[in-house]
């Protein structure tokens, strides 16, 4: 596929978010051009932690088996008090609920190389490095993307543009979008080391006010150290001297210059773009939001953006959804991204304080909380992280059960091919209508929804009886399926392609909910004189 001509989507930026978005789009048959101003992927191990939500996204893209070899299954984060004594170990909520460990160390260059190799083998994707985007012309039915390559200027026509081009996003700056928030003066030194003796599968946050620091062991002897710097020790973007690196890591290891893979001083921002959708272009990842690093959520938030947006674009291009639904992207993702930015700020102020008095108060408060079941659960299960639940957008809140929530993927037994498999593998990559302990007669009236959305239909059995149904039946094997759908017994559950509950209803209400769901489609839904819903 040549770079000239027309693509469904142009992705600006070949970092992890842009490459992930391209992979998710390509898995849905969308043609994609990825434009990157640098000559190759990054050699700098910037992000070092990837969540279960992101790994599930790679499963959606059909490439998780290629990603897992560069990921180390993690066991969370251990927090230490001002004296270096362990306070608690935060392992996250229910283990493997989404199919993967909650938090996992990795090296960003490894991930980028895996994604590039996968996309290079995909005929609907064109990767173009040394390509700098210099302008956009928004048209009623497409965007003209202007770029400069070593061979000269080019213009690419795309139905949509995804700006995944980082904190200095050309997609954002060239279209005049501002960011709101604040920048911090704190300077941190980050040093990625080789041949390290650390073998822990968890991150370590040391709340020593004299020198707050973080340690994150990785694969194959890699280890990241991050140290708070003080006045006179370094400025942002300044190359730290080896003597300072040697001094700071000396409490944990001896080190030589050859064992320093990367070292840089940095400061951070807590900002969010004022607009995420500009005509037919969208902002994702650092282009849309930047946050302090203390919760490890920068990259993961960007991948959440890609998971939310890409299926919507694919469904609009396929004619299943109206273009107006794309405005739901910012309405759904902004509240969670903003909450995550604020949580990262609070975590930094609390855990990484340089004030001895505040450190004493923090340690006492944590010790007191750990003495109660609720407090221990709050800390050890990382309930301080904001939950991702949509209350606006492509959800119908007035439903039978909770909407805007993610359904996990427990292992189930598929009675069609008699295999044990993850739920996502049964439901497939698109919409799914799930009947929770319903009989076949209950499905009458759901055809308009399943036809318009090309939805998979599945009946699930949660109890110890085998339902008799002509629909594809999956059975609970370990209680996981029952837990996920406990609130929906006797109801239909409409699952979006990103595994979010869009709506749920009793069979008697199928006509009403079909009308509401079909309002998202590009054509109007009417009621015939016989009271039967039609879609035309």
Describe, in plain words, how this protein is organized in 3D.
The chain is α+β, with helices and mostly antiparallel strands. The protein is built from 14 helices and 29 strands. Helix content is 27%, strand content 26%. The strands form six sheets. Strands 1, 2, 7, 8, 9, 10, 18 and 19 form an eight-stranded mixed sheet that branches. Strand 4 (77-80) and strand 5 (86-90) form a beta hairpin. Helix 1 (16-27) packs parallel to helix 4. It starts with a strand and ends with a strand.
| Helix content percent band | 25-40%
Q: Major sheet: size, sense and barrel closure?
A: 8 strands, mixed
Ends: how far apart? 36 Å
What is the general shape? globular
What Rg is obtained from the alpha carbons, in whole angstroms?
25 Å
- Secondary-structure-derived class: alpha+beta
Instruction: Report the average pLDDT across residues.
Output: 94
Strand content: 25-35%
Number of strands: 29
Per DSSP, the total helix count is: 14
Low-confidence stretches: 525-536
